[in-house]
Write a structure and sequence with these properties.
Elements: H1 2-28, E1 33-39, H2 44-54, E2 60-66, E3 71-76, H3 83-92, E4 97-100, H4 113-123, E5 125-127, E6 133-138
Antiparallel strand pairs: 1-3, 1-4, 2-3, 5-6
């Protein structure tokens, strides 16, 4: 009798462990988008302040600031936030922030080279390594 109860207990525990593991794995596979925000961030201290502040913003998955160009690159969950909300958060931290419109870049889908080139031709921007239209590199 006790052996039967123990078998049921371990079977239930195993099923729960599998369920929890699957949900954790699924949570890591969020479709994200990338946005670029022009900022006034000028130093390593400013960069750390912005990146730490964005950790509080729901939906922000990853962020980095290029100090040379002062461009903040953010990977975010579009179901939880928007580039405009992210820019407003940067502004509340004391920096200027304006979203750089980089058309055709959606990390949840593979951007087609033809579509990216078409978008870039309209804006006179350059296609970057990810096949996205990068307005920070405008062609002359």
């Amino acid at each position: 009798m006790k052996l039967e109860i123990m078998k049921r207990f371990f079977s239930a525990a195993l099923l729960i462990a599998i369920f929890v593991s699957f949900n954790a794995y699924a949570a890591d596979k969020v479709n994200t988008k990338e946005c670029k925000i022009q900022t006034s961030v000028a130093s390593g201290h400013c960069k750390a302040k912005v990146m730490n502040g964005l950790k509080e913003e729901a939906g922000v998955v990853k962020s980095d600031v290029c100090l040379t160009s002062k461009v903040l690159t953010v990977n975010y969950d579009p179901n939880k936030t928007t580039p405009e909300k992210i820019a407003r958060k940067v502004q509340t931290l004391g920096y200027t922030a304006s979203v750089v419109k980089a058309a055709c870049c959606d990390k949840s889908k593979t951007a087609s080279a033809t579509k990216a080139k078409s978008c870039c031709d309209k804006t006179k921007a350059k296609v970057n390594a990810k096949g996205c239209c990068d307005k920070t590199k405008v062609l002359k």
